Amino acid sequence: MFLAMNRFRIARGHEETFIELWRNRESHLDQVPGFLRFHLLKGPETEEYTLFSSFSEWESEQAFEDWTRSEAFRAAHANAGSTPREIYLGPPELECFSSVI
Q1: Which helix (H) or strand (E) element contains residue 98?
Q2: 2-98, what's its fold?
Q3: Triad 67, 80, 54: Cα angle to 5°
Q4: What is the pTM for the complete model shown?
Q5: Is the pLDDT assigned to residue 37 strictly greater than 80?
Q6: How far apart are the C-alpha atoms of 15 and 30, rounded to whole Å?
Q7: Which PANTHER family match (predicted)?
Q8: Is the pLDDT score of 93 beyond 90?
């Protein structure tokens, strides 16, 4: 099993905008071989931001890498530039993990 997570620092007051962007987004993941599940996670809050993480679970690292080179990936990220930039406090931070137990 392989896990990929992007951490997002979202400016306070923009949490619902961010959640709605993900809720209404067509991810195309349902058509990707090796994809298992997805969650958008809300984490701790500071005075400046609320931490979110997009969490995807894959059968293997290869399945995840194949997705990042796929037409489905390009389609899922096609509108990324239309998101209001002021909601983000920096770029997302990708973290990947392989299951060992």
Answers
A1: strand 93-98
A2: Alpha-Beta Plaits (3.30.70)
A3: 60
A4: 0.88
A5: yes
A6: 26
A7: SIGNAL TRANSDUCTION PROTEIN TRAP
A8: yes
Please state the rounded mean pLDDT for residues 47-71: 96
Average pLDDT over residues 36-48: 97
Q: Which residues pair with 8 in a beta bridge?
A: 52
Computed from CA positions of residues 29, 30, 35, 37, in that sequence, does the dihedral angle turn out positive or negative? positive
Q: CA–CA separation, 78 vs 70, rounded Å?
A: 12
Where do the structural domains in the chain lie, given as residue ranges?
2-98
H-type alpha helices, the chain: 15-23, 61-68, 71-76
Q: Is the dihedral of CA 41, 98, 58, 101 positive or negative?
A: negative
Above 80 in pLDDT, residue 80? no
Q: Whole-angstrom Cα distance, residue 44 to residue 8?
A: 11
